[in-house]
Design a protein that fits this description.
heterodimer, A: MetI-like fold, about 75% helix, flat, B: about 220 residues, mainly alpha, 9 helices, MetI-like (chain A), transport (chain A), transmembrane transporter activity (chain A), membrane (chain A), AA_ABC_transptr_permease_3TM (chain A)
């Protein structure tokens, strides 16, 4: 509990005050719940038939499961490609060659600063005009393009900070036994850095999963689009969005849980996670333009 | 290319993005700070409210909140914020941006508190400062400096995320770009213009926050 910095162990008067504030907090919570339920009730959104579809087979097999599949498909393809992109450009930024370093730096900083949605609009239009993919594949490929470029750049920064976080002796040892710079990077530094950034990588999956909902803007059929369709089919718009939100939250909780487990496991083996790991696991994220706060962002 | 620049009000679209970002930032900072105070308070229920808020909004896609604010809140619940359709959409977009990013601001501010070592509070108390004095003279100055970098990152994310408002029909930079690439040729140039526009909006801000957090860093 972070409160220890601020507060002493409470005395009798402070305990009384805390009890009163607890009551106030409870009142606020109950008040909010009352207002929300009242509003929903007035609009008829609490009626049993609005919620019944969620315990039937049809709502799941025809709407929610295809939605989850769409979201997961886009997220998994993107995170795999982003990991490749991140490793390539992360290594590029660590290269001896000044030209490669500079180009990788520009690419990474550019794609970190440009909103994902703009990249998706652009990619969607580009693919559709030039018939790059089959028509029904265009939205998926545009979503994957946007997510890969942005998250790949974030991961490239993670790779770089991971390698910088290793003890200098690792690199020196590699060079002193006669490996070249490239060999040292590939066979000594990178494997350690990648292992240490594993929790951050899983944390980045939360961002990818959430951002795949941006595909709604370019007609990609993911969970949000499907829950909108479900809302029209059963005339239960608000329950449908709530169900989608709960599903997103559960998926993200699962990912965060796995990330914590991996982090704890690496910690026991004495591998230090990269400095950014902690923030990325929060799923927060926001860095553009060389911010020191680590690569997490709140993309949407 | 010249036609595109003269036929479309690109600067106006970016002005809309700036308006969304500034108002959203103000809302997120206010709400996020209140939540952070709740999360570090010694009162259990306030802490629980703060924690649930952060967990819910940090794990829900912003796009879902945007869409639900119009199709759910406005159409089904009748919570219209203006008789004018465009104004209603704009106000909801600002509220959603604030509500979503408040969760991240809350965590950023809280991480600032966590950078203050317990010894600082103990030292403050042992020289006889009251709770209020140690808070305002010792803890807060250090906590604020510690939270500059993460709050800066969140604000930059908010600027980029303001593009999501285009999904519900706000005519911001992203909405404008979607219209132009649909109607005109020369897509790549258009993309570059808008991408550079966002780089101009975010890069100097990021550098400013980085410089500020370095200069104000508490030496330990």
């Amino acid at each position: 509990m972070s409160a220890t910095v601020l507060f002493d162990a409470p005395g009798p008067r402070a305990r009384m005050r805390h009890r009163i504030l607890t009551g106030v907090g409870l009142l606020i919570a109950v008040g909010i719940a009352y207002v929300v339920l009242r509003k929903l009730g007035d609009a008829g959104q609490l009626a049993a038939e609005k919620w019944k579809p969620f315990v039937t087979k049809d709502a799941w097999t025809q709407y929610l499961l295809p939605g989850i599949w769409g979201t997961v498909k886009a997220a998994v393809i993107s995170i795999v490609l982003a990991a490749v992109f991140g490793t390539v450009f992360g290594m590029g930024r660590l290269s001896d060659n000044r030209g490669i370093r500079w180009v990788s730096g520009v690419v990474v900083e550019f794609f970190r600063a440009v909103p994902v949605l703009i990249m998706m609009y652009f990619a969607f239009n580009l693919y559709a005009r030039n018939n790059v993919f089959a028509v029904e594949l265009n939205p998926l490929m545009a979503v994957v393009t946007g997510l890969t470029l942005y998250n790949g750049s974030v991961l490239a920064e993670l790779v770089r900070s991971g390698v910088h976080g290793l003890p200098a002796g690792q690199r020196e040892a590699g060079l002193s036994i006669g490996l070249t710079q490239g060999q040292t990077l590939r066979s000594i530094l990178l494997p350690q850095a990648l292992r240490a950034m594993l929790p951050a990588l899983i944390g980045q999956c939360v961002v990818v999963l959430k951002d795949s909902a941006l595909g709604y803007g370019i007609t990609y059929a993911e969970l949000l689009s499907w829950s909108k369709t479900l809302g029209s089919a059963y005339a239960n718009t608000i329950p449908a969005y709530m169900a989608a939100a709960v599903l997103f939250i559960l998926m993200n909780f699962a990912l965060t849980f796995v990330a914590r487990k991996v982090e704890a496991r690496l910690g026991r083996r004495g591998v230090r996670p990269t400095p950014a790991a902690g923030t990325a696991v929060l799923g927060a994220d926001a860095a553009a333009g060389g911010n020191p706060a680590g690569p997490s962002t709140a993309q949407g | 290319m010249g036609d595109i620049l003269s036929n479309y009000d690109i600067l106006g679209a970016f002005w809309m993005t700036i308006k969304l970002s500034v108002l959203g930032t103000v809302g997120a900072l206010v709400l996020g700070t209140v939540l952070a105070v709740m999360r570090v308070s010694p009162v259990t229920t306030l802490r629980a409210i703060g924690t649930s808020y952060v967990n819910v909004f940090r794990n829900t896609p912003l796009t879902l909140l945007m869409v639900a604010s119009i199709l759910g809140m406005t159409y089904i619940l009748g919570m219209s914020l203006s008789d004018d359709q465009q104004t209603n959409i704009f106000r909801w977009a600002v509220i959603v941006l604030s509500v979503y990013h408040a969760a991240f601001i809350c965590e950023a501010v809280r991480s600032g508190f966590n950078t203050v070592p317990v010894g600082q509070a103990e030292a403050a108390r042992s020289i006889g400062l009251s709770f209020g004095q140690s808070l305002t003279q010792v803890i807060l100055p250090q906590a604020v400096r510690g939270s500059i970098a993460p709050v800066g990152s969140t604000i930059i994310a908010l600027i980029k995320n303001s593009t999501v408002a285009s999904v519900i029909g706000v005519s911001d930079a992203a909405g404008m770009m979607a219209t132009i690439v649909e109607n005109e040729t020369g897509t790549f140039g258009v993309f570059l213009i808008f991408a550079v526009g966002f780089v101009i909006l975010t890069l100097p801000l990021g550098m400013a926050f980085t410089a500020m957090s370095r200069r104000l860093a508490v030496r330990r």
